[in-house]
Amino acid sequence: MKLDTNQLLRFTTAGSVDDGKSTLIGRLLYDSKSIFEDQLAAVETTSKRKGHEGVDLALFTDGLKDEREQGITIDVAYRYFTTPKRKFIIADTPGHIQYTRNMVTGASTANAALILIDARHGVIEQTKRHAFIASLLQIPHIIVCVNKMDLVDFSEKVYDDIVTQFESFSSKLYVKDIQFLPISALLGDNVVNRSEQMDWYKGAPLLYTLETLHISSDLNKIDARFPVQTVLRPQSEEFIDYRGYAGRVASGIFRPGDAISVLPSGFTSTIKTIDTSEGEQEQAYAPMSVSITLEDDIDVSRGDMIVKKNNQPKPVQEFDAMLCWLNNNAARPRAKFTIIHTSNEQKAMIKEVVYKIDINTYARNEEDKDLAMNDIARVKIRTTRPLMLDEYRDNRITGSFVLIDDATHETVAAGMIM
To answer: Most buried by CB count within 10 Å: which residue of 12, 88, 101, 222?
Structure first.
């Protein structure tokens, strides 16, 4: 199997407070030599001021002042690093229950989720909550890191018991790939280098696992979707008749000569060329940003979607979705929103709250219909005009949306189409 080397891997971290998420990321950055010298000097100074014997690795990610003072993560901290095999974007998300919205934000585009478990405490409610959100967001790969193994004498039995606990409930979740690793983020065991203390563990360390994670098959290569972001009409002699439709491929593969339809108009044509800054391309696939030209001069504008003629999404005005409420203020009954779906903006309203989910027990509450911050609920949405939708489980790009409050212009909710 060909490894996905040099591909960008996005992963998110999740775990209860003090499970060591920030320390783990700090260890990854530190041991993979992805820290700038000035960053390292600043963290060393702060660590000494706090009275730590060594470098406090968590300070590499705890960027907010409140986080540094409390020693916790309360926002989504994004970090970037590169190894010879792959580029990475990390979303370090909070562990508190009141920051569910932050985990949803950080995990929405992730290829993988690192769920940390304190070896001393085992699987707790927070663990189940984070696993449920990862499942809800259809994150293809979950890596369960049993951390702080140094505090349980690197016990194989403790590790095996936690794996059994996790597997007993994760079988109910829709997750394709779950892997387990025993680690000590503080000491570096099984993070970048193999642990000499846990020779009973025969698997690879975390960094190697991330570098070799197969993510090509995670992309939807069947349903070709190209949301148009803008129309390119260069005012130059070289491109005097050029009319290109620019955007990012959401899924599928497009090639010159493909028969396409433009939605919602239904006009049909054939792809003439696919262009990038590097010249004409033989094909385009997610997540490439390209400009597509057509053989016919038809009306195409921002918000339209170019699709294959024989494979089209459903144009619908009313649909069910799982909604995470992001705003501090509760949802107003029958309030008007702007829904942003790919590059398309329409007016919308929440027609009905079907049920809310208790993300600790997975139980449905059909009595409580009020949406408050961090609530996750199944709702019915109605829009003024049809949207070109796929189900989220089939396509994370065309199956997701956000709601903007028309009165305050704040992003109030993120949704996944059922």
So the answer is: 12
Which of 275, 308, 341 is where one domain is finished?
308
**Looking at the structure, do residues 71 and 187 belong to the same domain, yes or no?**
yes
Return the higher-pLDDT residue of 404 and 36. 404
pLDDT of residue 98: 54
DSSP 228-270: --EEE---SSTTTT--EEEEE--BSEE-TT-EEEEETTTEEEE
What integer pLDDT is reported at residue 151 of this predicted model?
96
User: What backbone torsions phi and psi does residue 156 show, to the nearest 5 degrees?
Assistant: -65, -35
C-alpha 338/C-alpha 253 separation (Å) is 30
Domain that residue 361 falls in: 314-417
- At 283, is the pLDDT very low, low, confident or very high (cuts 50, 70, 90)? very high
- Whether 108 and 159 map to the same domain: the answer is yes
Domain endpoint, select from 184, 218, 252 = 218
Within 10 Å of residue 403's Cβ, how many Cβ atoms? 26
Are residues 409 and 385 located together in one domain of the fold? yes
- What share of the chain has pLDDT > 90, as a percent? 53
Residues 90, 151, single domain; the answer is yes
How far, in Å, CA of 272 to CA of 95, rounded? 50
Domain count, the chain: 3
Q: For residue 90, what pLDDT is reported?
A: 86
Residue 107: how many CB atoms within 10 A of its CB?
A: 25
Residue 312: CB atoms within 10 Å: 18
